[in-house]
Amino acid sequence: MTAVHPAAPSGALLTGRAKHLALAGLFLSMFVSMLAMNVVGTSMPIIIADIGGTQAAFTWVVTATMLASAISTPIWGKLADLTSKKALLQIALIVFTLGSALAGTAQDPTWLIVFRVLQGLGAGGLGVLGQIVLAEVVSPLERGKYMGIMGAVMAVATVGGPLLGGLITDTIGWRWNFYVAAPIAIVAIIMLQRTLHLQTFKQKIKIDYLGAALISAGFTSLLIWVTLGGSNFDWWSWQTIAMVGGGLIVLALAVFVETRAEEPLIPLTLFKNRTFTLAVVASIAVGLAMFGTAVFLGQYMQLARGRTVIEASLLTLPMMAGVLISSTIVGQIITRTGKWKRYMVIGAVALLAGLLLMGQLRYDTSYWYVGVSMFIMGAGVGMTMQNLVLVVQNTVPPTQMGVASSSVTFFRTIGGTAGMSAMGAMLAAQVSSYIQDGLAKLAPEQLAGAESLASGVLPKVAELPEPIRLVVESAYGHSIGNIFFAASPIALLALVAIIFLPNVPLSTKSNAEKIADLRAAEEANAEGVLTGSVTVLTDTTGPVVLPTRHSQAAPSTTIKTDSSER
């Protein structure tokens, strides 16, 4: 008869006050990342105008940062499965802070883009490593509460960033926006060093650099096409064929390489997990809503409504209030009840409704309407964004926690980046068309100053003559409403994906506990080969193959689990 042994104790794990102190340092590192990324949000039109940038430059300053963040995310996640998560988090903080400080010295759009890329590389690590470390310390059931807190921290930074940035821009100059992260980052690094103590199971580091290069090149080609198409060249042109065809070929090669790599950057076997695949689809839409609205709402308030940087920041508060309130409340409810799916469906509906409502924006739309629309969309983002990562972490093997978490974040950022590039290209084309139509209706004596619009440089609306200012505000108001409406079908796709997510119960063990149990089971099974007993391990997530530590044991042990998707 087969004997069943309990898994061994999990070892020294963070609990009580030590866990809370470690999480405080973790949340501070995420706060500084979000603060520094958003502090320039509403100031960006002024920054681009000051250094002589165009609408395309505006889009690429943001897009390049997000692309660098997206491409680096799977690498950070893979490294987290292989080496010290704490050291990686500190390195990401240093890279991010260095990029932020250098961006403050930029004299033209090109250098601003370069330094924002460096900033994005660090941001990619901070975003995903925060979620991975949280999973290491907290169980999925309890994690709902902390995911809500994380969402609240991100919302506060997202709200406070533009407000602080507007104040800095209007007082001492926009360059200081990029320096604000440094002192907070130093405090975060020290806190992490003193409080975050994690078990580390180091393995030989093998990164699929060829796969990373191919994925980067393929997505970059497609994003350049989306950004420049319709303005620098026609959508149907040889440039389109070259960029789209080349990008797809390179991505196909990346898939081929990933299927044969010893340590693939994004294991394609993850897509056999229904929860992971559907979460990726939904995350793309959430990324589009989150990043796109954050960027283009600032433009709407300044260029369509003629508001200052600080006023624009204050007027976007309803969206962040929606994120803050919904993520905190829903996170607490999920931890208390263990039920998550109904709230994510509600969030997806709110996301779709918010985009449809914002699709009706014009330059003279009531501020009450704008505020309610933003709040609804923010509530949708708050109920879905972090919880999509949570449900994936709940259903993947603990040894793939890093790469699975980073993959969801990667596709969310890629979706947001691609969507934002497409929205930016559509905005530039529509604004140009609306301005031409509007100017054609003006009398000749009202056209004085219109020549400044021909360069394509973002206008300083307050300095334009009254008739031309109204044309510009109307053009931006109508165009920004149009791009939000055009994004709504993606939100509908997210709703469908979330509806079909398997309703798997949340586990009660942290990732560190699961890995410790796996190690104990490995040793017990090695002994079982000699004694005839077998250890059965439960409450893990998916089949796990454990490397054997004893030469007399079988080459490997596959442990089946009781959490198959239903």
TrEMBL record:
- GO MF annotation terms: transmembrane transporter activity
Q: Where in or outside the cell?
A: Cell membrane
- Domain called Major facilitator superfamily (MFS) profile: residue spans: 22-506
Transmembrane ranges, per UniProt, are 21-49, 55-76, 88-107, 113-134, 146-164, 176-197, 209-229, 235-257, 278-300, 312-331, 343-361, 367-392, 480-501
The text of the family note is: Belongs to the major facilitator superfamily. TCR/Tet family.
Q: Name the predominant localization.
A: membrane
Output this protein's name: EmrB/QacA subfamily drug resistance transporter
Question: Its membrane topology, per UniProt?
Answer: Multi-pass membrane protein
Instruction: Look up the signal peptide feature and give its range.
Output: none
Per the UniProt record, the source organism is: Leucobacter luti
InterPro entries the record matches? EmrB-like, MFS, MFS_dom, MFS_trans_sf
A Pfam family the protein falls into? MFS_1
Which SUPFAM superfamilies does the record associate with it? MFS general substrate transporter
| UniProt cross-references to PANTHER family, sorted A to Z | COMD (PTHR23501:SF197), MAJOR FACILITATOR SUPERFAMILY (PTHR23501)
Keyword annotations: Cell membrane, Membrane, Transmembrane, Transmembrane helix, Transport
Region annotated Disordered sits at 545-566
Please list the residue ranges that the record marks as compositionally biased, kind Polar residues. 549-566
- Gene Ontology cellular component list: plasma membrane
